[in-house]
Amino acid sequence: MKTILLAVMLAALAQPAFAADWNDLLRNGLDDWTVLGDGHWRLRSDGVLAASFGHDRQQELQGPGDFGRERFLWWSTRQSWLYTTEEFGEYDLHVEYWVNTPGNSGISIRDPSQAKCGVAERPDFSCTPSKLGYEIQINSEYSDRWSTGSIYGLAMGKPGLETPGEWNRINIESRADAIRVFVNGELAAEHPGDPERPKRGPIGLQLHDIHSFVMFRNIWILEY
């Protein structure tokens, strides 16, 4: 009996405790979100949001038309995003994630385009969310110098804060004059923000490419 009680107590401690003024962004399932691109986003019964492309890749490669090197690159690097229908200004955001290793994902904030350039059949990386708004990088041993917690293109994150192959957590403080990112409780990166970029906007979750598999849970926001 003591062993069972201890297990229950440990399980309870493992769950994040949020005050009443925090809002669960998955409280209505995916009704408050929009899928962009042709990724498969599914909210499981255990509250985990799972995303992958799930295509028959061999069938696509054998499809009609010329599938040369350039078209292959377009096909393999296109993205999918899940965006909130609501826009937010100043807030704290809590997200827990799991990504395949090596793998890449990200969290977009204040992006007015809703990843339009990234989900295009021919992605244009000059106008993806990290260029128009901000992207908080998720990098699990992926061949990219921007480590998890980086504010992509603006502030390099402190390396080594995440545990590959495990659930990790990111907390983002979005303020009019600052963006701060914490990975597993440690400050990873901060930046005052680009004065030419929006102060508010939707929140997006990234499925980076056709090889990616990513999961999210406990997506909570506290607005100010």
Shape, per Cα inertia axes: globular
Helix content: 10-25%
Biggest beta-sheet profile: 8 strands, antiparallel
The domain tally reads 1
Q: What is the CATH third-level topology name?
A: Jelly Rolls
CATH class, named Mainly Beta
Give the integer mean of the pLDDT values. Answer: 89
Strand count = 13
Q: Specify the CATH architecture.
A: Sandwich
Please, what is the CATH homologous superfamily? Exo-inulinase, domain 1
Structural class: mainly beta
Kindly estimate the percentage of residues that lie in beta strands according to DSSP. 25-35%
Uncertain segments: 2-14
For the termini, the CA-CA separation is 45 Å
Compile the SSE list and pairings.
Blueprint: H1 2-14, E1 23-24, E2 33-36, E3 40-43, E4 49-52, H2 57-61, H3 69-77, E5 80-84, E6 91-99, E7 103-109, H4 129-132, E8 134-140, E9 168-175, E10 178-183, E11 186-191, E12 203-207, E13 213-223
Antiparallel strand pairs: 1-13, 2-5, 3-4, 4-13, 5-12, 6-9, 6-13, 7-8, 7-12, 9-10, 10-11
In words, what does this structure look like?
The chain is mainly beta and 224 residues long. It has one domain: Jelly Rolls (Sandwich). It is 14% helix and 35% strand. Strands 1, 3, 4, 6, 9, 10, 11 and 13 form an eight-stranded antiparallel sheet that branches. The chain has a five-stranded antiparallel sheet with strand order 2-5-12-7-8. The radius of gyration is 18 Å and the shape is globular. The N terminus is likely disordered.
